[in-house]
UniProtKB/TrEMBL annotation:
One GO term describing the cellular component: membrane
Location in or out of the cell: Membrane
Keyword Glycosyltransferase: yes
Protein species of origin: Cyberlindnera fabianii (Yeast)
Protein keywords: Glycosyltransferase, Signal-anchor, Transferase, Transmembrane
The protein, known as: CYFA0S25e01398g1_1
UniProt keyword annotation of Glycosyltransferase present: yes
Annotated membrane topology: Single-pass type II membrane protein
GO annotation (BP), single: cell wall mannoprotein biosynthetic process
Top-level taxon of the source organism: Eukaryota
A Pfam family the protein falls into: Glyco_transf_15
Length: 401
């Protein structure tokens, strides 16, 4: 009788053991799956952990942001016309393939005339972020009321006789003026914190394996540039005098730790090429809070009212350069040494072999412009800031370009 009474309890004990074993198996499978998933995710992050360059470290940056899925409020922006469509397609595709197919940032296109249906349909089909199309106000793409049209015409005639490119092109002057200051105040940029200006002829030649906008935010950078070249001072002979006059009248606007030395001509650093240094605006990144600040607009209006865009041939590059160099701290300006690109005039390529390989660059460092001592300004940028130049800079001067 006792043996018969114990059979149900034996079965129950066996049943409990079976359930316990099943629970242990489930826990083990779950743990293995979680561990594998975590490892795979970490591998994915590591895959896109871009290398830090020598120049990054000299500028106080020792790591690039990982892709954790978060984005900052940022957009690309391009000023163009309907007839630029096929140039724009090439520019957009290069940015998408090398960066934005992964990060899906928005894009804003601005034009002085209505953007047609074909342009909208083609560009929006390529871009993975949200796309907006805007109109530049007529008063921002025409002679300001304080510019004497006849005096401007006589100036254009004189510059044409001297053989300057774009001397008679009024539309070119409107475009340069707009890019230099008015662009960042467009209402379509109201919801963003950062912008990246892309010219229609800009083509990336290296992958950008980190979020450049998040990089700007994490490192408190207000302006990022891709190239600095020597300008032609004959195009803007009064610009630097006008800037000096402004800061003499408004000494409170100048910072002790700015990059004034980058703007000023130095008897030692500029002896080989007397042209002032200027940032390339066709691939630049900026913090909109700075470009919309009162300090920025006070200086912009002072420069604009001098009429230099129309009485001379001021361009966006030198104007952007003096404004950012004078109004920002040096540590708030960053050179993106790992971004490779080309346009109709120049080619820029990272000089570190490891960076080129990691970013799958297709550019030729032997044709890169950055370290040419006569035509470009990276030497000056490094020396005035106390940065040590890359170990192989002498091998990349490319004097023949």
């Amino acid at each position: 009788m006792l043996a018969k009474e114990n059979k149900p309890w034996s079965f129950l004990r066996l049943h409990r053991k079976g359930v316990l074993i099943m629970l242990i198996v489930v826990v083990l499978i779950t743990w293995i799956h979680t561990s594998t998933t975590r490892y795979t995710r970490d591998e994915h992050y590591m895959e896109y952990h871009a290398p830090t360059t020598h120049s990054d470290k000299e500028q106080g940056v020792f790591s690039k942001p990982l892709d954790d899925g978060t984005r900052v409020k940022a957009t690309f922006v391009t000023v163009c016309r309907n007839q630029d469509l096929y140039k724009v397609i090439d520019a957009v595709k290069s940015v998408q393939e090398h960066f934005n197919d992964k990060y899906h940032y928005d894009w804003v296109f601005l034009s002085e005339s209505a953007i047609n249906t074909e342009f909208r349909e083609v560009t929006s089909s390529i871009i993975t972020g949200h796309v907006e199309y805007g109109y530049v106000k007529r008063d921002q793409w025409s002679f300001p009321k304080y510019v004497d049209a006849e005096l401007s015409y006589q100036s254009r005639i004189k510059m044409a006789q001297q053989g300057f490119e774009h001397a008679m092109d009024v539309d070119y002057r409107h475009w340069q003026r707009y890019i230099a200051g008015l662009l960042t105040n467009h209402t379509l940029l109201d919801g963003y914190d950062y912008f990246c200006n892309i010219n229609v002829d800009t083509r990336l030649s290296c992958d950008i394996n980190y979020d450049i906008f998040k990089f700007m935010k994490q490192n408190n950078k207000k302006y990022g540039f891709s190239m600095a070249k020597r300008g032609n001072d004959k195009l803007n002979p009064s610009l630097y005098e006008t800037v000096a006059r402004y800061f003499k009248e408004r000494p409170d606007q100048s910072l002790d730790d700015n990059m004034k030395r980058f703007v000023d001509l130095d008897p030692q650093l500029d002896v080989k090429s007397p042209g002032h240094c200027e940032f390339f605006t066709g691939l630049e990144i900026g913090e909109l809070r700075f470009f919309r600040s009162q300090r920025f607009w006070d200086l912009w209006e002072y420069l604009d009212k001098s009429g230099g865009f129309y009485y001379e041939l001021w361009q966006a590059g030198p104007v952007r350069t003096v404004m950012s160099s004078m109004l920002l701290r040096a540590k708030e300006i960053h050179w993106f040494s790992d971004i490779g690109f080309q346009n109709e005039q120049y080619s820029v390529c990272p000089i570190e072999k490891e960076v080129r390989r990691a970013n799958k660059c297709t550019c030729d460092p032997k044709t890169s412009a950055s370290w040419n001592p006569k035509k470009f300004c990276m030497h000056k940028f490094f020396l005035i800031n106390g940065y040590e130049r890359p170990p192989n800079w002498r091998d990349n001067m490319n004097r023949g370009i």
